[in-house]
């Protein structure tokens, strides 16, 4: 053991989390937590930041054993939990009341397979790439309520009236609908880069010299949002980039570019 495992175990216990509770808050499986605590792997960078936030300690402490820093509200001169939460706002987040935790844990035993199905379905049917979907419980929420957020903006919220009605199938249905209707608020620079990287790997001649040479990644992101909101899908990314390369010399105004491209895309 190199120390990370021991510090993770100690910090988890100090914060009164079971492996299952910590896994739920991070949006991973309890098996992943167990694996880290047995020295069989590490969280990725994004998860490591969230982990240090949840356990009220610094990344340096977790991975290098440097003096432990307390990020709690009581820690004078350190970032408060509220500040860190704003910094770490998730592109797509499902928050649930405490009455849904048991159902969420049951879903986690199947590695939230339905979330993967949603991601694959939207990619195949509409050309949409979704970010990782985090799940966390909120004690201040109604115990049977849930809400879907993008960068701390609530996109949808609902409540089961009785415990017998609790169903993650309904939550997944709402999540898929919201992802489709509010995709412009979900797509971010990282997702846009993933799209262009994938295109560069499979069709380098299409993307070369266009993004970011003729249009920045941020502007390309805005263009994709415009096309999606007007057309309803991002199916033919290759054709979109080809038309962009052809038309961008005439104008760099995003709305006009989107309209010009849409006119020549297949219906």
UniProtKB/TrEMBL annotation:
Domain HTH cro/C1-type: 8-62
Pfam short name (any one): FHIPEP
Example of a GO MF term: DNA binding
Gene Ontology CC annotation, any one: plasma membrane
Protein name per Swiss-Prot or TrEMBL: HTH cro/C1-type domain-containing protein
Entry keywords, A to Z: Cell membrane, DNA-binding, Membrane, Transmembrane, Transmembrane helix
Gene Ontology terms: biological process: protein secretion
UniProt key word Repressor: no
InterPro entries cross-referenced by the UniProt entry: Cro/C1-type_HTH, FHIPEP_1, FHIPEP_3, Lambda_DNA-bd_dom_sf, T3SS_FHIPEP
Chief location: membrane
The family this protein is said to belong to: Belongs to the FHIPEP (flagella/HR/invasion proteins export pore) family.
Membrane topology field: Multi-pass membrane protein
Source taxon at top rank: Bacteria
Tagged with keyword DNA-binding: yes
Compartments (UniProt record): Cell membrane
């Amino acid at each position: 053991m190199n120390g990370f495992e021991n510090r993770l175990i100690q910090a988890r216990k100090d914060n009164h989390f079971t492996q299952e509770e910590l896994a739920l808050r991070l949006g991973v499986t309890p098996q992943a937590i167990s694996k880290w605590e047995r020295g069989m792997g590490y969280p990725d960078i994004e998860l490591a930041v969230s982990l240090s936030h949840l356990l009220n300690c610094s990344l340096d402490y977790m991975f290098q054993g440097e003096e432990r820093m307390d990020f709690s509200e009581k820690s004078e001169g350190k970032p408060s939990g509220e500040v860190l939460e704003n910094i770490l706002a998730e592109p797509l987040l499902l928050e649930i009341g405490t009455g849904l935790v048991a159902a969420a844990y049951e879903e986690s035993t199947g590695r939230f397979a339905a979330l993967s199905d949603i991601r694959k379905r939207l990619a195949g049917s509409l050309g949409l790439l979704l970010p990782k979907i985090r799940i966390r419980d909120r004690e201040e929420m109604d115990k049977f309520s849930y809400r879907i957020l993008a960068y701390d903006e609530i996109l949808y919220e609902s409540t089961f009236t009785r415990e017998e009605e609790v169903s993650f199938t309904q939550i997944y249905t709402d999540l898929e609908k919201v992802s489709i209707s509010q995709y412009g608020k979900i797509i971010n620079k990282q997702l846009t880069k993933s799209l262009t990287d994938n295109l560069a790997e499979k069709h380098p001649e299409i993307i070369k010299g266009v993004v970011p040479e003729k249009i920045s990644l941020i502007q390309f992101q805005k263009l994709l949002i415009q096309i999606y909101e007007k057309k309803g899908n991002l199916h033919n990314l290759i054709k979109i980039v080809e038309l962009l390369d052809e038309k961008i010399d005439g104008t760099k105004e995003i709305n006009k570019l989107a309209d010009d491209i849409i006119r020549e895309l297949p219906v």
